[in-house]
Write a structure and sequence with these properties.
alpha+beta, four-stranded antiparallel sheet, 364 residues
Length: 364
């Protein structure tokens, strides 16, 4: 996780050789999943509704277009850029374009509540020359393609797409990297990007984009600032039951920091961790709660509290037959872990302080 704009510039430097492409997501939890595939569990119904949606779009969008798309590839590209759900995923050759989308999102106030993510994958070779199927619905594998510049948005955003034969399956791109932008830095990033020429008006070169840009510049408190977070009261926490933790947060970028007493060992119990690199930029962490001196055995479930970037920030783990509780995770960098045992013991471990963890892991 980066800590400043200058830190971001240093991190992105190695990807500025023209051999990478980028995608920004407003919430680091978001997977590389096409918009049409979100929220479905029935693939057959999805395909039927997707076909119906495209038929309606092609029939009703014509009066608004200055250019008649040549085929379904171009129709999908236009639909995607104007917000209709499709089996495409947007990418850009520009890291700053993608960072713009990571720090703004569709709801500028709400988006600051989340850490943003910048996905980085190797630039596909020969995407312009690759023979396409007659229809994007006939592809058998994930395929990159550069669309014709049928809208000014595609030109402005230096866009290209992946088309996904199974929209329900998240894309696990080879050699995928990710840079995490803390929500607390998004306001600063918006100002920096605007100064560099990456703003609403340049990303959306029409009168709507201009209006959004002017609204943000004139009324920054309403266009950019999130509502202050409301801390739950002790009464609210009690009413919600024992699983609710009603504690003020000291570090929004590391939410468990300082919540659990700051010690990995207490009352005869110990929280430990082992970290190893599993692929470039990603690490496996195995957390373990056990007896500090071997004299105790866990018999009740243990609650682990993780960084908010995990899809499920609270995990309940039952002890193994050896009387220890283990939890395996994958992440891009260090964070603080909190643990609560059924006897009331609370443990806390800052993974960035692990001397035997990889240096890159500890520095993020």
């Amino acid at each position: 996780m980066i800590r400043s704009w200058n830190d971001f510039l240093q991190k992105i430097e190695e990807f500025l050789d023209g051999n990478w492409i980028f995608r920004g997501v407003v919430n680091v939890k978001y997977e590389l999943l096409p918009s049409i595939g979100r929220g479905w569990d029935d693939g057959t119904r999805l395909m039927d509704e997707e076909a119906r949606l495209l038929r309606c779009f092609k029939r009703e969008a014509r009066p608004y277009l200055n250019y008649l798309p040549a085929d379904e590839w171009e129709w999908l590209a236009i639909a995607q850029h104007h917000g209709a759900p499709t089996r495409l995923i947007d990418w850009s050759e520009s890291p700053m374009v993608s960072t713009y989308f990571a720090v703004w999102g569709s709801d500028p106030r709400q988006s600051m509540s989340f850490d943003g993510g910048l996905y980085i994958v190797p630039k596909p070779m020969g995407a312009d020359d690759t023979a396409r199927a007659a229809s994007p619905f006939d592809t058998k594998d994930v395929q990159f393609f550069y669309p014709a510049h049928v809208t000014r948005r595609i030109t402005a955003q230096r866009g290209l797409f992946t088309v996904h034969p199974n929209p329900l399956k998240a894309y696990d791109a080879p050699s995928k990297r990710q840079i995490v932008i803390p929500g607390r830095l998004k306001s600063e990033f918006r100002i920096k990007l605007d100064s560099l020429g990456f703003n609403h008006a340049t990303m959306f070169p029409d009168i709507d984009g201009l209006a959004r840009l002017l609204a943000w510049r004139v009324m920054p408190t309403t266009a950019a600032a999130p509502d202050p977070p409301r801390q739950p009261t002790a009464e609210a926490g009690a009413a919600a039951g024992p699983d609710t933790v009603a504690k003020p947060r000291f570090r929004p970028d590391d939410p468990q920091k300082g919540q659990w007493g700051g010690k990995p060992e207490r009352n005869g119990w110990r929280l430990g961790a082992q970290v190893e690199a599993v692929e470039p930029g990603w690490f496996k962490t195995v957390l373990e709660v056990s007896s500090a001196d071997g004299s105790k055995t866990l018999t009740e479930p243990v609650e682990f509290f993780l960084h908010d970037s995990f899809p499920k920030a609270k995990r309940t783990v039952r002890p193994q037959s050896n009387g220890k509780a283990k939890l395996e995770l994958h992440s891009y960098g260090a964070f603080t872990v909190g643990v609560r045992l059924r006897d009331g013991t609370e443990l806390e471990l800052d993974l960035s302080k692990l001397d035997d963890a990889p240096k890159l892991f500890r520095s993020r």
